[in-house]
Amino acid sequence: MYFLFSTSVFGQRHEENFTAEIVILENENLKKVIDSIDLKNYYLKDGQTWYLDFRKANEIKLASFRKSKLFQSNTDVYLTIIDDNILFILSKRNHIIPIKKTGLKVDLNRFKFLDLTTELSSYWILKEVNGKIEIVSKSIYDGKR
After folding, report:
1. 62 or 141, which is more confident?
2. What is the C-alpha to C-alpha distance for residues 133 and 143, in angstroms, rounded to an integer?
3. Does residue 113 surpass a pLDDT of 80?
4. Other C-beta atoms within 10 Å of 62: how many?
5. How far apart are the two ends of the chain, measured CA to CA in Å?
6. Which residues contact 44 (CB under 8 A, 6 or more apart)?
7. Are 18 and 108 in contact (CB under 8 A)?
8. At residue 23, does pLDDT exceed 90?
9. DSSP string over 8-51
10. How crowded is residue 130: how many other Cβ atoms within 10 Å of its Cβ?
């Protein structure tokens, strides 16, 4: 009897819903830099999406990866649209970034699985220089390697 009770109480896994809150990016300079890149001109493999990564101090990474890679520990995930491109935004949990929250959420549970694949993709490293966001390095992938 004790065994049945302990497995029924302690054997259940708590599944947290995986969502992304829809937000508005408030940094106009950052939006202009992203617009100037014109993401539609760059290779995006099926199943990949664009994302902005705010998790490193003093830099923002704009790149692509699989939607299944969005789910990461200690990371908040947001979603925005810039120049008709859907971009996910990653930040450290409870870290302040230049966004306005809408309270609307997108269900991402179907992308919540362990994905060990690695793929080449384009990326841009952005930093604030003299009060403006600038591209400080980039790597462009054309989909042919």
Report:
1. 62
2. 27
3. no
4. 21
5. 59
6. 50, 64
7. yes
8. yes
9. HHHS-------EEEEEEE--HHHHHHHHHH-GGGS---TTEEEE
10. 5
144 located within any domain: no
Q: What is the largest distance, in Å, between two alpha-carbon atoms of the chain?
A: 69
- Tens-digit pLDDT profile for residues 31-52: 999 999 999 999 888 878 899 9
Domain count across the chain: 1
Question: Taking Cα atoms as reference points, which of 120, 105, 104 lies closest to residue 43?
Answer: 120
pLDDT band at 91 (very low <50, low <70, confident <90, very high): very high
CA gap 42, 38 in Å, rounded: 8
Residue 50 domain boundaries: 19-139
Confirm whether pTM is higher than 0.85: no
pLDDT in tens, 56-86: 989 999 999 877 667 777 889 999 999 889 9
Q: Which amino acid appears at position 139 of this protein?
A: S
Answer whether residue 55 is part of any domain. yes
Closest CA to 90 of 120, 59, 121: 59
Q: Rounded to an integer, what distance in angstroms lies between the CA atom of residue 98 and that of residue 121? A: 25
